Amino acid sequence: MTRWASVCAAGVVLGAWTVTAQPLPVATPEAVGVSSARLERLHSGMQDFITRKEAGGIVTLLARDGKLIDLKAYGSQDVESNKPMKTDTIFRIASMTKPVTSVAVMMLVEEGRLALTDPVSKYIPAFRETRVAVKGDGTTVTFEPVRRQMTVRDLLTHRSGLSYGFADSGPVGEAYRRGSVSDGLTVTEGTIADNVERMAKAPLLSQPGAEWHYSLGIDVLGRLVEIASGMPFDVFLRDRIFTPLKMVDTAFDVPDAKWARFATVYSPDGNGGIRPMKDPEQFGNTSMSPVQYYKAPKRYFSGGAGLASTASDYVRFAQMLLNGGELDGVRLLSPKTVDAMRVSHTEDLHGVEGGPGSGFGLGFRVVTDLGDSQMNGSVGMYGWSGIYGTNFWIDPKEKLVAIMMVQKYPNPTVAPLFQTLTYQAILGPPQPLPAGRTISGRLRQTSAAPGPAPRASASR
Length: 460
Prior knowledge:
- It is built from twelve helices and 18 strands.
- The chain is of the alpha+beta class.
- The protein has a domain at 100-229: DD-peptidase/beta-lactamase superfamily (Beta-lactamase, 3-Layer(aba) Sandwich), CATH 3.40.710.10.
- The strands form six sheets. Strands 3-2-1-18-17-16-15-14 form an eight-stranded antiparallel β-sheet, sandwiched between helices. Strands 4-11 form a two-stranded antiparallel sheet. Strands 5-6 form a two-stranded antiparallel ribbon.
- Helix 2 (36-51) runs antiparallel to helix 12 and helix 3 (97-110) packs parallel to helix 7 (217-229).
- The longest helix has 16 residues, at 36-51.
């Protein structure tokens, strides 16, 4: 049997779960209006990515009405060693760090230590004199003063005028590269304070508030958290978010004791398959370090791209948001603050990343027009993804949290199919349990049977 055939046959390995180890209470899919039979289409569709060698391994998780209904691992955590993917595998979540940082900022807003309207220069004076790059004819670039200072809200919504070096081949991206501004994806000298000071010396891509540009603004917010709270950013996240929410595997580094659970990152091998990403490796202007960047000790904690986590940890964070800022008696935010975060703050702008029919809230993509989005889902669903392929969303209307973890760059096209196959399995609203019934204490087994994985239905 070939290595790939054995990976595909293995399908999934689930440990013996106990109630205390589960991230949420569990229920059968039918108890919350989801079809078990139709979930098999989801499982088959995810397995197909492994069979076609488009990904090494995947983990998917679905929770509805606060209950965990489906958690499955596919393929391999490391193909070369034939190590099966497991549901507790640790993934680089990259830009899925951004919602976490945004929650930290909004906690400080609630405490009166920050305000959405505060100019960033109030806390980081280096931004006071920032200018805007204006392209002229040919290669001519001029610089003009800002018409107003960028604000905390501008950073949260990516309308600050900042950019990302990996996404910008123009004068701003060139200034970042000349100034050694890190995108937060590779080993970085110094601290976030150092990187933000370097960033402030570069010009802006647009006037603050005027345009939407995906950016390092969330890294700047990490520095604002430090200044406003008086705590190192990693310590604030650990003490104020991860520990209270019992997110035991989420951090900026992966300790030696957990390294065996850390998934390998893959890239296309040029022959229709995949290969392990090198460390470091350069893809155009994108510098990536999938190994050394996650080793302790670290000094640079990227608010936009730095965390590693598991599906089971991240569902607790997402469920907290779906619950209006609270989980298991721990409240991080008020319901009104979460409401403000999950509505679009970019309705007046065009070109917002995330596809048609969407805007951007305070840390998330928000679906504003289901028809324009051309995807199954709901108006008001919100979430984000990571550069290594991870993806999550929260659907308040359906009381749904969906998480998909994969490690490949350039990204596989897993996320759109994951969304389609999730929604086709929802057949109705969550159903109340009959009198006297309680939720099962064990997650239903979703192990794939040995042999070739079934194809997903053609109706997917």
